[in-house]
Design a protein that fits this description.
single chain, alpha/beta, 7 helices
Length: about 150
């Protein structure tokens, strides 16, 4: 699997600005010396407004398609409601971008099988896990394994 980095940092995007994005992923991304936050996708105007008060420098996109046209991303962190994981994961993998997301991998066995097959075909990682159990190790995984991607 090829995992391209740019300017010595991995470029990441976060989909969704819910509690988990704000409390778990965003602090880890901003604290990492190996990861650069290229943008966030969010449609809720209130969440966008609150976020931009503290993070004016981080681009916000109202659609994943706009982010994909504007940015070269290495991996995406999906923090959307579970029923949206499948479509977001599929689009990400179709664009040959690695996926990191909170469990579940999908909401049906058929979706999980399809995403696994697509990830293999596109040579992308599709990682699902329980963030509460691994959040302190989240980006250490990338730092340790980046030479293998």
């Amino acid at each position: 699997m090829q995992f391209q980095k740019s300017n010595t940092k991995f470029k990441v995007a976060i989909l969704g600005l819910g509690h988990q994005a704000l409390e778990d992923y965003l602090p880890a991304v901003l604290a990492s010396k190996d990861v650069y936050l290229s943008g966030i996708v969010e449609i809720d105007e209130e969440k966008i407004s609150l976020f931009q008060k503290e993070h004016k420098e981080i681009p916000i996109y109202k659609s994943f398609d706009h982010l994909l046209k504007d940015q070269k991303i290495n991996f995406v962190i999906i923090t959307l409601p579970h029923y949206l994981h499948y479509d977001a994961t599929k689009k990400t993998i179709q664009n040959k971008i690695h996926v990191l997301k909170e469990k579940p991998m999908a909401i049906s066995l058929n979706q999980a099988k399809e995403l696994k097959k697509l990830a293999e075909k596109k040579q992308c990682s599709n990682c699902s896990y329980n963030a509460k159990k691994v959040q302190s190790y989240l980006f250490n995984i990338y730092a340790v394994n980046r030479q293998n991607w």
